[in-house]
Structure prediction request, 262 residues.
Amino acid sequence: MEVLGYIGALVIGLVLGLIGGGGSILTVPVLVFLLDVEPIVATAYSLFIVGIGALAGSFQYYRRGQVALKTGIVFAIPAFMAVFATRRFIIPAIPDPIGDLGFMVLTRDMAVMLLFALLMITASISMIRGRKIKEISTDHKMNIPLIAVEGIVVGVLTGLVGAGGGFLIIPALVVLAHLPMKEAVGTSLMIIAVKSLIGFLGDIGQMPIDWLFLTFFALLTIAGIFMGLQLSHKISGARLKPVFGWFVLVMGTFILIREVMA
Prediction:
């Protein structure tokens, strides 16, 4: 299972490189089910892994001039504040167990995995439908208050489950900040990198961290990203996205059923 877990790290990066997002949604399941990491710890590790991976990806977009720094900062500041606060204060404050529902006792780990499963299902539907986001003329002024609110919402969600939230960030950047799609993807990766890595700082000192394991896993993910970027010139990411969406849907449904039945 351990070997499969490290192969999973490569796959996460490969998907990120091929379709520009979505791969990070697999990080927590790989850590929990293949490498036996506790769910709460897995969400912390995921922040570091996703953050490092997104940083590597965003650098490639920055070199091509496809990162809107000003817009990214407007979104990232409330987002990383929300992630840091969630990891530092909200997660430790959640009681364990949370409560007795009569038919089952809801533990903190179970609640995290249920929320993560619902996020996976939501993200998968977005990928399967493949609905194009209507780009708006860049002459419009960006809606700073709404961008900030979206940043807070995505930040809290990222803090709770350790996922990047690109499927929420990219539409917000296109619709609210009027960025072209490629620039929105590059800016999204920058935002994910900043908020994830700063959010991870909220976990340092709160739980034991295996830095050797974490660094090795992150390096494998980065290797996968560069492999994916090379393959993206030969394989259509748009065609792969719905297929990957179905895989994520099956995984999310499996986790949901597993946690409820357990």
